[in-house]
Amino acid sequence: MENQSPLNHDEKPIGQLDTEIKKCLQCGTEILVGRKDRVFCDSGCRAQYNYDHDSNNDPIVKFVSGKLTKNRKILLQLKLAEQATKVSRTQLTDLGFDFNYFTNIYKTEKGDLYYYCFDMGYLSINDRTYLLVKKDGYVPGG
Ligand SMILES: [Zn+2]
Fold this sequence. Notes:
Elements (H helix, E strand, L loop, with lengths): L21 E2 L6 E2 L11 H10 L6 H23 L4 E3 H6 L9 E4 L5 E5 L2 E5 L4 E6 L8
Antiparallel strand pairs: 1-2, 3-7, 4-5, 5-6, 6-7
The site of zinc ion has 7 residues, from loops.
């Protein structure tokens, strides 16, 4: 059986409490007591503050990563669905593919340009047809 002892609550001896008054960084509520490094009134405020200050939550970052993620999903979906890896431009755009967004370009010795959305890439064969490729062992910048 597991040890069923009650949760070990933090019950350090009081007496060295920091009574300096601080204000919660998120909501401004005064924090009367607590550890010296305490800067939020509760965990909800800490979570909200961290969320608001995470650069990944900037609207532009969200927008672009949404585009890239969607593009990759479409490429992967078509690559898995099609035995042949050639798809038409319409197939891509019908699914919402946006050609303006990609993560990197790979140029072959022949001069072909592969546009990648993460590990999924495409090569324009002509104006209407694209070859889909999946990069195994993808290394960013590699
Ligand atoms: Zn607060």
